[in-house]
Amino acid sequence: ALAGVAEAGVDGEVIDLRTLMPIDIECIAASVKKTGRCVILHEATRTCGYGAELSALVQEACFHHLEAPIERVAGW
After folding, report:
1. Alpha carbon 46 to chain centroid distance?
2. I need a labelling partner for 13 at 20 to 30 A (CA). Which of 26, 49, 69, 71 fits?
3. 76 with 47: CB under 8 angstroms?
4. Sign of CA dihedral 1, 54, 37, 64
5. Residue 7 clears pLDDT 80, i.e. is over it
6. Rounded to a whole number, what is the distance in angstroms from the first to the last CA of the chain?
7. Could you read off the pLDDT of 21-71 as tens digits, one per residue?
8. In terms of C-beta density within 10 A (0-12 exposed, 13-18 middle, 19 or more buried), how is residue 58 classed?
């Protein structure tokens, strides 16, 4: 678990994508279906990056399981 996360009462999962192609959308979808949420963190810019594409893929695969909008955290 991430340091401080459990103490804050947050229950979450971290998926570290080892490769971008092929993308393991099944693993991501299983987590979203379990948690109902998705936060995408990457170092690139917020727009026109891989995080935006990943957000679209998650939206397509998990629309009915999302309890909140997909959030993106990006670099400058």
Report:
1. 14
2. 49
3. no
4. negative
5. no
6. 27
7. 888 899 999 999 999 999 999 888 888 888 899 999 999 999 999 999 999
8. buried
Give residues with Cβ within 8 angstroms of 25, minimum separation 6.
57, 58, 61
Residue with tokens 């594409």: 53
* Cα 16-18-20 angle, rounded to 5 deg: 105
**Residue 71 DSSP symbol:** E
Q: How many helices (H) and strands (E) does the chain have?
A: 2, 2
**Paired tokens of 8:** 């804050």
Nearest to 70 by CA among 52, 45, 49: 52
Token pair in block for residue 19: 């490769």
C-alpha span between 65 and 62 (Å, rounded)? 5
Which parts of the chain are beta strand (E)?
A: 39-41, 71-73
